[in-house]
Amino acid sequence: LMMNKKQLQTSEKATLVAVAYQDHLLKDLAINNLSLVDPFKANRPSLSQRLKEQEHRRKVAIKNAKSTIDTGIKRKKALPQKDVNKQSEYVLDPKPRPLTLAQKFGLIPHNKDQKKLLTESEWGEVKKTSMLRDDFKSPCVICKDDFRVADQVLLSCSHVFHRACLKAFERFSGQKTCPMCRRQQYQTRVVHEGTKHFKHKSATKIQSTWRGFVVRKWYEELRRSHPPKNPILRKKFFEDKLAEITDRFVAETMGDTVDRFLQDIDQSVQSSRNIFRHFENTQLNTLTREQWTDIELRATERGVTECPICLRGLADCRHSNETTAIVKNEPIALLSCSHVFHATCLNALESFSMDNDVTSFKCPVCRSLYRKRIVEC
């Protein structure tokens, strides 16, 4: 009977140990949900549930909304301005993960920070250990990039990573294990020491670049204004000075030469235009009566019945501005190019011309210089 009791106790203990190990493995490997659903998505609400929750929150917000009337009489109190550059540290873990059954029995060791959250002094020691290794000055071991201004995460094992990199590592590995030392169930804290180091490094680089630029410009100006005492270098200094002055004079001379050349071309073109215009004016001024008769015949043969300016008939009657009487036989302007217009329309067009010279007016149709003659319709 005693043997049976001992065997029973031994079997119960073995069963309890086996259950404890199984529980630890299931929780450690995150396989407590053995269905085909992704364990990281098993507890997520469905899309319809999320939409219902959003609609419920919206209705509650509308119900609790209160109207306000601002007459502008009461002066609003100035809120204290927040320091944008101030960055605070905070812990990401709300509470440590509870111990598994195997860890409670002492079958599997557990971390000291798994029982309770680390205090501020303990986090200070962890950060000090990381800073002694210059982890914040080194790039992130996951993405191999500098921390820059992105959030950094300090683990309770004193290793530092990008917050986004660590989150991606945990999502794809399925375990909460440090990528460096493989420590499990660590605690995380957002820090900004890497950002401070990056800003200090950037400011130092900007200052060194600017100071180097200023010193180089000062040294170049010193070299240009103070000749050296060595005879060979002094000779070279004045040769360079003379070459610089000569090049400047040559450039100015070439510029003046080009300007004068272009000015001569413009004057020649203007002179040629004046000569041709004078020739055309001379020809137009010497039109005889027979030539005007020939021009009138050509205009009649063309059979134009509308004024190209106002698009009204050339033989239409018009109303006077001062009286309501109908005025017939509106005068028509016959041009030397055989085009015809209303005399009033042509006079209005000439009044809007930018050129005040009467001999420089051009026909609105063929763009040639003309002389006009008033004829009755």
TrEMBL record:
PROSITE patterns, A to Z: IQ, ZF_RING_2
A Pfam entry, by short name: zf-RING_UBOX
Coiled-coil parts of chain: none
RING-type domain sequence ranges: 140-182, 307-367
Domain of life: Eukaryota
Keyword terms: Metal-binding, Zinc, Zinc-finger
Signal peptide: none
GO MF annotation: an example: zinc ion binding
SUPFAM superfamilies reported for this sequence: RING/U-box
Record keyword Metal-binding present: yes
Keyword Metal-binding: yes
PANTHER family hit by this protein: RING FINGER PROTEIN 32
Protein name, entry field: RING-type domain-containing protein
Naturally occurring in which organism (per UniProt): Ciona intestinalis
